[in-house]
Amino acid sequence: MEVKSSDGKSHANCGVVPIWIWGCESTRRTVLLDLPVKIVIIQHTVSPPCNTDHACESSLKSIRDYHINHLNFTDIGPSFLIGGNGKVYEGAGWKHVGAHTRGYNDKAIAVSFIGDFSYDLPTPEALQAAEDLLSCGVKNYYLTPNYRIVGHRQLSATDSPGDKLQEHISTWSHWTYAL
C-alpha cells in the first residue's frame, strides 16, 4: 500500500534515492524480506563522512565495490545508507534481504550512517532523515508499528555504530536493550 500526501504524490519509496540512480544499475539482490519487519539495526560505515551529493555517491560506489568485489556479497550490504547531506540512499532497500548482520539479514532492516560516529554524531539532517525514513516505513507497512531499534554492536562483535551514535539511539523511543 502506498501512502499519498494531500498533493496526490506517492511516498512509498520514502524519499530514498534509488540504487539505480546513485549506483548506475539496479540491485543485484533477489531474495525478498517477509514484511513488515520488526527490527531496525543502526550501523555506521567507518568511512569518511560525506556532506554533498557528489561525495556521498562516490562513497557509496566505493562501499558497494568493496562489498561486491572484496567481501563477495551479492550487492551492497545495508538496507539504507544515510549521508551527512540528509539524503537516504537505497542499498538492499525495504523489500530485499541485505548482508549487514549475521543471523538478522532476513528479519531486519539495517540503516547505516556514512562515516565514523565513535566521537561525533551524524549531522542533524542525517539524524532527521533516519527518523523520517522509519516513520515512512511504518506508514507504508514495511515496518511494524512496534518495531525495535538496536545498535549493530548489540547483535555482533563490532564497535558499530560508534560510541556517540549508540548513546544517541538509546534515547529513541523504539530503542531496546535486547531483542
Automatic annotation (TrEMBL):
The residue ranges of the N-acetylmuramoyl-L-alanine amidase domain are 26-162
Keyword vocabulary terms for this entry: Disulfide bond, Immunity, Innate immunity, Signal
Cysteine disulfide links? C14-C136, C50-C56
* Molecular-function GO term, any one: N-acetylmuramoyl-L-alanine amidase activity
Write down the superkingdom of origin. Answer: Eukaryota
GO biological process terms, alphabetically, are: innate immune response; peptidoglycan catabolic process
**Residue limits of the Peptidoglycan recognition protein family domain?**
14-156
Q: Is this entry keyworded Signal?
A: yes
What InterPro entries has UniProt attached to this entry? Amidase/PGRP_sf, Amidase_domain, Peptidoglycan_recognition, PGRP, PGRP_domain_met/bac
Q: What is one Pfam family matched by this protein?
A: Amidase_2
> SMART domains given for it?
Ami_2, PGRP
Q: How does it assemble?
A: Monomer.
Tell me its family. Belongs to the N-acetylmuramoyl-L-alanine amidase 2 family.
Protein name per UniProt: Peptidoglycan recognition protein
Q: Which organism is it from?
A: Papilio machaon
